[in-house]
Amino acid sequence: MIAPGDEAGFASAIDAAAAARTPLTIEGLGSKGGFLRPTQTADTLSTRNFAGIPLYAPQELIITARAGTTLAAVEAKLDEGGQHLIAEPPQYAFLDAPDQTIGGIVAANLSGPRRIAWGAMRDHLMGIRAATGRGEIIRSGGRVLKNVTGLDLCKLFAGSYGTLGVITELTLKILPKPEATGTVMIRGLRPDDAVRALSVALGSPFSVSGAAYLPQEAAMAVGFENTVTIARIEDFAASVAYRTEALAGLLKKFGPADILDTPASLTLWRAVRDAEPLPIQPGDAVWKISVRPSYGASILHAGHAAGLFGYLDWGGGLVFLTGPATDEAHAAVIAAARRAKGEWWLLRAPERLRLSEDAMPRIPPGLAAIRQRVVAAFDPAGILNPGRMFAA
Amino acid sequence: MISLPKPKADVLARRDAVHQGLRAIMRDRGVITDPTKLKPYETDGLSAYRQMPLAVVLPETTEDVAAILRFCHENGVRVVPRGAGTSLAGGALPLEDAVVIGMMRMNRIVEVNYRDRYAVVQAGVTNLGITKAVEADGFFYAPDPSSQLACMIGGNIGMNSGGAHCLKYGVTANNVLGIKLVTIEGEILELGGTHLDTAGYDWLGIVIGSEGQLGIATEITVRILRAPEGTRAMLAAFDGNEVAGACVDAIISSGIIPVALEFMDRPAIHACEAFAHAGYPLDAEAMLIIEVEGSVAEQDWLLGRIKEICARFNPISLKVSQSAEESAAIWKGRKGAFGAVGRISPDYLCMDGTIPTSTLPLVLRRIGEMSAQYGLQVANIFHAGDGNLHPLIMFDANDPASMHKAEAFGADILCLCVEVGGCLTGEHGVGVEKRDLMRVQFTEIELEQQRRVKSAFDPEWLLNTAKVFPLQPGTASAGPDALPQAA
Ligand SMILES: Cc1cc2nc3c(=O)[nH]c(=O)nc-3n(C[C@H](O)[C@H](O)[C@@H](O)COP(=O)(O)OP(=O)(O)OC[C@H]3O[C@@H](n4cnc5c(N)ncnc54)[C@H](O)[C@@H]3O)c2cc1C
Ligand SMILES: Cc1cc2nc3c(=O)[nH]c(=O)nc-3n(C[C@H](O)[C@H](O)[C@H](O)COP(=O)(O)OP(=O)(O)OC[C@H]3O[C@@H](n4cnc5c(N)ncnc54)[C@H](O)[C@@H]3O)c2cc1C
């Protein structure tokens, strides 16, 4: 493993690999090695020795971190200023990884429940420095909230899984932590009604910042007996008190609501964020599906029919499913997502299944040609994480 | 003056054939070639620059756009995408050898879905038109450029436009779920969809804000949001830019995210007050407009908190609006700022740079010094929450010397923005206006990397040529090759 301690080290390692045409696996701490397709390379280039926080400006709502800084270290720093990462990135329970890097989180564009109200991880990425597959250091964006100067390469890097270059440093927009949080919870709804209720909540003027549904198996995994439909509000204490009451009133037609206070809400939403409600067995696969919210329930049904269980976040728009890592189950997930015009990601599975063509949706031909040219624009020798996103 | 590339002689020579080809594709509708009818298209919001195009085409469907682009691609003809032409950076400025594709006839709202909270609209729908279509049901489309009455969602995609409320709701890129994009080769690509996360590269992210360099957006799926219960504004005036800046920091770090936080300096206050009679304090050096939202009780509580914070900075005056009418009056001055400055000066340049908010006092002081040095007045209006400066430089376009000075002053301000850690443009785009300043912000390696991405979409550099990327030294070519040498 090559793990440089300075930025130039990334450029020269890539330069050497490009000259020799020997592919590199790019990783932070390797926590998401199970996501998508595995890479088979002679060497690994890791950011784990390139950590630190060169700039934290609470008043400007920004933090700059080197890519190898752990998520925990970034969160601890922000804690000092009473602030947090807006997209509340997850620490998925099924990864069995004690820690992950901020570079890996951004490279995988991972966002938690708040994504539905406040945007994805990539929406808060204001600037990057990166070593491209050409062994060149580039910057894109900067440290200011609004920036439309030239093409926004930051956006391409967020969600690129290390296939365009190694992000070496990144600047994120952050926000003060809300003073309080509260959750309106309705028990016992069936999926269709639950999604309808969440849709009413998200269509209300009360700024709902989390909207999830846990079917029975998922609810049981986090200590409830029956299904729960939950909507979260985060704000100043007085607002949270007013808004949760008002929201419970609005949702009355779906059933009586309980209101969870700040500590109970924090625990529950952390579990939802980290995919803890997944009734996961050793050896099981995990899928994530992004879909129009009102189609979420149909994906749960289809999963159920294929022997899979899971839950809904993002008002129904994000479906987690888990179950046996069989070809049949994989095909069922893909078919259900396609019917709903949604997209899927394979987040955990044995190597055999991950080497299948579809660890995420294939790209239509017109776009595939552009994708190939874009990849070649950054990594002409094709040495960065080959095969990680798509079969080569 | 900014130079444009030499027109392609062979294309000019084939003018009639190109016109004929376009008419055939368009079934003899919406192809403009007559010079008097072309006149309205010769410029955009950067009206100091004018150029008659080869032709203007007004497509009605995505298939029209695809056919036109395929035709232009096959014939080596350059293309300039155009929405409402309100770009302040010359983004929609025609070229002599280019076909302008105007999107105004594609102005249909295709679908509104409240349950999943999105709307599908054609590129020629105006920004305000989207909100108008859903506001009766309590919804709105969040990004609100001051030009929202005129500018089109396709142009907003081109420029990644923002507005006064983007401190809370984000800019265009944060509010778009899907784009139907037509490539220069005439391929129709569906990017994103009606769901939140998309697998693979973030194509929406690279297309939004690309200033018509990568393709033409014909249909856009936007998120629509439920409007808050209510909003209310307040004014706070201070006797110095520095204290006003410190007050902004204090508000934001207290955990309050106002929906809008606007900063006006003394010349801006005076110009706007003379125009709108909004009751602005004329003895102030700096003024903040702060808007919050929620129920009436929440508004009271938040404005009370903000008042307490402002009070720590010795304000000259504090005025909390008590009604929707009073809030509207407070905004009237700000929203009329461009018109107001237009009244006190024959012409003005509206600059658009972004700075880290901590550098605000320094930057305003330096702008004041430059104003004295150039002998040109400047008024500063500022989205204070996100560091987006809009200095309005006043000059007289009938006096060429005055105009050159204004341009040089503007360039100095933008260089200053970059020097303090900011950037050349926060929302208006690079266009032709800031094209040659790109080298101030980016290294040659960084520019080259951006050019390669452009080439991946548009290998022959036919789309909005000579915008965004500085021309290569010694040539009039912006692209890696393929463009003719300067005359
Ligand atoms: C403790 C441990 C456990 C492991 N368990 C497994 C396992 O169960 N299954 C398995 O297959 N492998 C496992 N591995 C191997 C390892 O996960 C893979 O070698 C590696 O591909 C994954 O790295 P990672 O980037 O996911 O890490 P992350 O840091 O989580 O990165 C996520 C994605 O982003 C990319 N990336 C990371 N940092 C950057 C950056 N700065 N710039 C650009 N892109 C970046 C990565 O290439 C990857 O695509 C394990 C490794 C360790 C150390
Ligand atoms: C008075 C005034 C106030 C303004 N206030 C603001 C403000 O508050 N915030 C802000 O962000 N901007 C503001 N602007 C600038 C301008 O209104 C925005 O940039 C707007 O988004 C441009 O929209 P348009 O439809 O006029 O596009 P145009 O000016 O026609 O085009 C803008 C760019 O987008 C490209 N383009 C147009 N349509 C498409 C398409 N369908 N597909 C691909 N590319 C396309 C063009 O080639 C060009 O590069 C203001 C302008 C004026 C005149």
Structure description:
The complex is a heterodimer of chains A (392) and B (487). Helices cover 32% and strands 24% of the residues of chain A. Chain A has 392 residues and is of the alpha+beta class. Chain A has three domains: 7-176, Uridine Diphospho-n-acetylenolpyruvylglucosamine Reductase, domain 3 (2-Layer Sandwich), CATH 3.30.465.10; 180-273, Alpha-Beta Plaits, CATH 3.30.70; 284-359, 2-Layer Sandwich (Alpha-Beta Plaits), CATH 3.30.70.2740. In chain A, the strands form four sheets. In chain A, strands 3, 4, 5, 6, 7 and 8 form a six-stranded antiparallel beta sheet that branches. Chain A has a four-stranded antiparallel beta sheet with strand order 10-11-9-12, sandwiched between helices. In chain A, strands 14-15-13-16 form a four-stranded antiparallel beta sheet, with helices on one face. In chain A, a hairpin with a 4-residue loop joins strand 6 (125-132) and strand 7. By secondary structure, chain B is α+β, with helices and mostly antiparallel strands. In chain B, helix 10 (266-276) packs across helix 12 (324-335). In chain B, a hairpin with a 5-residue loop joins strand 8 and strand 9. Chain B is globular. Chain B starts with 8 loop residues before the first helix and ends in a 30-residue tail after the last helix. Chain B is 35% helix and 20% strand. The relative contact order of chain B is 0.12. Classes of the chains: A alpha+beta (392), B alpha+beta (487). Chains A and B meet through strand 7, helix 5, helix 6, helix 8 and strand 16 of A and strand 9, helix 8, helix 9, helix 11 and helix 17 of B. The structure holds flavin-adenine dinucleotide (2 copies). One flavin-adenine dinucleotide is lined by residues 25-34, 38-39, 44, 47, 67, 100-101, 103-104, 107-108, 161-162, 166-167, 385, 388 of chain A.
